[in-house]
Amino acid sequence: MTINGQPDQYFAEMTSGNYFDVLGVSAVKGRTFRAEEDREPGAGPVIVLDHGFWERKFAADPNVVGQTVLLNGQGFTIIGVAPRGFQGTAAIGGPDMWVPMSMHDQLVSGLLKTFFNERRFLGFNVVARLKDGATEQQARAELQTIGSDLERAFPWLTKAAALPPCRSWSPPSIPDNEDSFRAPARS
Question: Which DSSP category does 133 fall into?
């Protein structure tokens, strides 16, 4: 990434266009991804910055939204800043920024790029949130049906279709202020 003419290496996480919506997270500056930014390859040269990264590398510039930075030589527009304390779904640490999955060809290289569209590539994590009123048992039954369908359609993926136990996740408790991440209400 090149910021203010200075190239350096940072960690970007590629996510689906509805990633922030599924997690119930809104930007504290600007916005998060729109569905159309993740529909077609190359359609979304936009990024959402991690709050701490915004503070460190952009001096918490309130006018950062709309600025362009270079990632692997391509211009990306900063569209938002995530709330303080939000690190995505990472267990330890989090990315410096989030980029729509549609931009994978512009960001990945080597074997990752070679295998990205291969059916057997197992380089993705899936995150979901229960619909209001849905139970874990209902979700598990639906996932089991999907897994069984995949096993029948792609017998060589039997292990990949196995479903791990559902896990609940809650973000750490963070002081309540305008820049802090608040978890969606849970019933």
Answer: T
User: Among 75, 77, 90, 78, which residue's Cα sits nearest to residue 23?
Assistant: 90
Query: Which residues lie below 8 Å from residue 122, measured CB to CB, with a gap of 6+?
Result: 160
- The pLDDT assigned to 186 comes to 43
Contact 81/97 with Cβ under 8 angstroms? no
User: 123 in helix, strand or coil?
Assistant: coil
Give 161's pLDDT tier (boundaries 50, 70, 90): very low
Q: Which two tokens stand for residue 2?
A: 């090149």
Contact at 8 Å (CB) between 12 and 96?
Answer: yes
Contact 183, 24 (CB under 8 A): yes
The token pair that represents 152 in the structure block:
């029948």
- Measured CA to CA, the distance from residue 110 to residue 18 in angstroms comes to 27
CA gap 120, 57 in Å, rounded: 38
Cβ atoms 85, 174 nearer than 8 A = yes
pLDDT digits (tens, 9 = 90+) for 5-63: 677 888 888 898 999 988 889 999 999 999 889 888 888 899 999 999 999 999 999 99
Torsion of CA 48, 121, 110, 2, to 10 degrees: 0
Helix, strand and coil in the chain, % to nearest 5: 30, 15, 55
